[in-house]
Amino acid sequence: MSAYQSLEDHFRKIDDLNHVASVAMWDEATMMPPGGGDARGRAMSTLSVVIHEQVTDPRVGEWVDAARSEHLSDWQRANLREIERTWREQTCLPAELVARRGIVTSRSEQAWRRHRASNNWQAMQPLLEEVVSVMREEAACRAGATGRGLYDAMLDVYEPDMTSAKLDALFSDLKAFLPDFIENVLERQR
Question: Among 16, 20, 61, 71, which is least packed, fewest CB within 10 Å?
């Protein structure tokens, strides 16, 4: 079996695990009884660690290196690039951090469901502080692995190759455009 085929087979299993995680998250958000939050949080954290271990399996790096020299279609080369990107994004995170992130985000999500109607900030604040703390740890791991700043390291996860400098340029154009535009719209509505 080629290295690329090994990657494809391995990531198909990872996609199946991610699918199960998505179904469990959907269930949590729509159908799960309120008392199931702690157990679901632990289960989701465990599943996140299992997925993380599969993505960061040392064989993945070996397969990626070997697959680069294989004759691949354009689609396969693009897929290889995304698999490598996923692998690099995950190898900089310790499994313990992935587990902790799963627990604190689930706990915060469950509390938000209970407290949003009453706008109970005091109940949410310590939970959100935990989430922010864990995300700052993640940002530090990612920044250390990539050489980017904290924000850029996290931004790259959600918007590949985007940087705060590019966003500053984009939003500075909007900042210049919007005030006059809003005035014109308001004037026209009068």
Answer: 71
Q: Tens-of-pLDDT digits for all 190 residues of the chain?
A: 899 999 999 999 999 999 999 999 999 888 888 788 889 989 999 999 999 999 999 999 999 999 999 999 999 999 999 999 999 999 999 999 999 999 999 999 889 888 988 999 999 999 999 999 999 999 999 999 999 999 999 999 999 999 999 999 989 989 999 999 999 999 999 9
On whether the CB atoms of residues 65 and 110 are closer than 8 A, the answer is: no
Rounded to 5°, the CA angle 18-21-27 comes to: 145
Measured between alpha carbons, how far is residue 6 from residues 55, 64, 67, 79 in Å? 13, 10, 9, 13
Enclosing domain of residue 164: 160-190
CB-based contacts of 18, cutoff 8 Å, min separation 6: 51
Residues 6+ apart with CB under 8 A from 66: 3
Does 165 share its domain with 151? Answer: no
Q: Do residues 84 and 178 share a domain?
A: no
pTM: 0.83
The residue whose two tokens read 């299993």 is: 13
Task: Say whether both 87 and 132 belong to one domain.
Answer: yes
